[in-house]
Amino acid sequence: MCGIMGYVGEKQALAVVVDGLRRLEYRGYDSAGVAVVSGGQLETRKKAGKLANLESLLGSDPLPESVIGIGHTRWATHGGPTDANAHPHVSEDGKVAVIHNGIIENFAELRDELTQAGVTLRSETDTEVVAHLLAAILPSTGMDLAEAMRLVCRRLSGAFTLVALHSDIPDVVVAARRNSPLVVGRGIGENFLASDVAAFIAHTRHAIELGQDQVVEITRDQITVTDFYGVPAEVTEYEVTWDASAAEKGGYETFMAKEIAEQPKAVADTLLGRVDAAGLLKLDEMRLTEAQLREIDKVVVIACGTAYHAGMVAKYALEHWTRLPCEVELASEFRYRDPVVNVRTLVIAISQSGETMDTLMAMRYAREQGARVLAICNTQGSTIPRESDAALYTHAGPEVAVASTKAFLTQLVACYLVALFVAQVRGNKFGDEISAIVRDLSDMPRKVDLVLDTSEEMKALAAELKDAPSVLFIGRHVGFPVALEGALKLKELAYMHAEGFAAGELKHGPIALLEEGVPVIVIVPSPTGRGLLHEKIVSNIQEVRARGARTIVIAEEGDESVVPYADHLIRIPACPTLMQPLVATVPLQVFAAAMAAAKGHDVDQPRNLAKSVTVE
Ligand code: F6R
Questions:
Q1: How many A from CA of 608 to the centre of ligand 1?
Q2: How far apart are the CA of 199 and the centre of ligand 1, in A?
Q3: Where are the domains of the chain?
Q4: Between 595 and which of 110, 209, 384, 462 could a Cys-Cys bridge form, CB atoms 3.0 to 4.6 Å apart?
């Protein structure tokens, strides 16, 4: 949730850290803070609100020059978003500064212990205890900062990435991680710590994955990783393929606008290299053998939010192409209901960030029950693919806007690829059937590009509807998850009531919400795909219209049957039924962003949210 950055090297640490925080701000933006060591003194500045508030504080109250520093951008858990609760937190002797992402579950106990020892805590956070615990160990024991960190970590429960600086040790930054993200960037004469690689790719592309329960010490020239008991750890170094400019706005007004526009390429990139000359799929990177795939008797998809909607679409594709039963479950619910999973279950965990705690915990639970877990993920080196039996990466590039767009489309593509690959391996489809579907998929980047042409219409519609108290979305089959996704986008960006329904379910209750002028967005399936499905939704449009709703109909080019019932008609390119979400979602993304902009909201950083949800 929070963004974390640490630096030691030759450059001005403050500039490097603040630039890194800017790239991490999507992770949390309630408050921000930095600490540097200069002339044997620890100096911090922190401020509630967005990073811009901290930057103006630094303008009026500058920090001294320094080559070592840490910085934090916060998504509040313990304690409101105030200056006092902003990180870094500093020990009473003013020597230790700590930043933290996660939740220290036993903090109340540690806080009582410190209070009894006479320490005065100055914030309501769980983090502050760590600064005091480190300070209490260091002078008396002669330990170094990494040793002290290991000792403290052994006392903590919960999830944490911690980064610490000590004023008497001006060339070392120490960090630790348990259940919370942390990557190391290896530079030349400089090293970095961050919540994700976006923070340092402008400086280095060499990254090191940190494992669970590890402590890392960085100096200008050295990176030392151990477990919490000081045992040296083997590390995996990898090359970051993301381009530094991919994490910039590149002339667009918002990251979200840029990421929506990047979708044709993101879809194409996710397909790239995954089809052989015969038009069949090759997913060798997935690390599951054909024998293992043949043993499966059930698929369970776990994910949260937008990724869950991708999982819902996956169910339709998987069941249709493989004839395997597929369940889709919200990751946050999964492990609490005693789910039936075993060695013959394939669990697919979908996550853009690869760090979502609900998904991670659900996935670990599934593995404990013997299930094989396949991660569909966008972030290299993140925890979920690392802990999975197999991984298929989406190639969306960095997604910076909090609301997920291009990651969703690429998750859909990855789900189609997995479903089709399973069908290919298990012989559910003939080779020529597989290659025909692959051809359809390969044409989707072009169709996603075409559908972007509806953007001006969607913006005009948003201008008209910006004061509507509520917007409803309906769809059937794969149009149902699209309806849910359209509503989620509108809620998170425009802060308004929006709900998605399975169109057939309306008459069982929600139809009571309809009154004169309520906008209802209808996702209409292809008339050539499943005739009955199409017919039913045309009836649903008439039902809502008869009750005074204002119908906004999203239908394929050439579908004339909907024309008489549409107050607004948005045309999308014709495509196979299962693939329609790839085009039908795009106008809804543009609509939600335009509604948010029309209401004067921050499109990239909606209130109360964070991009990567690393708490349960
Ligand atoms: C919505 C959105 C969230 C995420 C969800 C899962 O626009 O972005 O609903 O989809 O928090 O995140 P990941 O995919 O990182 O696990």
A1: 14
A2: 20
A3: 3-246, 251-442, 451-598
A4: 462
pLDDT at 243 over 80: no
Strands 298-303, 345-351: pairing is parallel
As a whole number of angstroms, the distance between CA 464 and CA 433 comes to 45
Per residue in 458-476, pLDDT (tens digit) is 999 999 999 999 999 999 9
Q: Which among 594, 545, 601, 600 is positioned nearest to 568, based on CA atoms? A: 545
Ligand 1 pocket: which of 27, 75, 260, 356 to mutate (most atoms within 8 A of CB): 356
Is 611 a catalytic site residue? yes
The answer to whether the CB of 353 is under 6 A from ligand 1 is yes
What is the DSSP secondary structure assignment for residue 120, as one 8-state letter?
Answer: P
pLDDT tens digits for 538-595?
Answer: 999 999 999 999 999 999 999 999 999 999 999 999 999 999 999 999 999 999 999 9
Number of H helices, E strands in the chain: 19, 24
Distance 52 CA to ligand 1 centre (A): 25
Phi-psi domain of 95 (left: phi exceeds 0; alpha: psi -120 through 50; beta: other): alpha
d(CA 161, CA 176): 6
Instruction: Give which of 126, 170, 171, 172 is closest to 152, Cα–Cα.
Output: 126
What CATH class has 451-598? alpha beta
| Residue 89's pLDDT band (cuts 50, 70, 90) | very high
Residue range 3-246 forms a domain whose CATH class is alpha beta
Q: Which pTM does this prediction carry? A: 0.84
Could you give the dihedral angle defined by the CA atoms of residues 246, 248, 251 and 257, in that order, rounded to the nearest 10 degrees? 80
Using alpha carbons only, how large is the chain's radius of gyration in Å? 25
The region of weakest confidence among 15-24, 135-144, 453-462 is 135-144
Place of tokens 């309520």: 518
Distance CA 454, CA 462 (A): 12
Amino acid at 233: A
- Shared fold status for 251-442 and 451-598: yes
What dotted CATH number matches 251-442? Answer: 3.40.50.10490
Q: Residue 306: CB within 6 Å of ligand 1?
A: yes
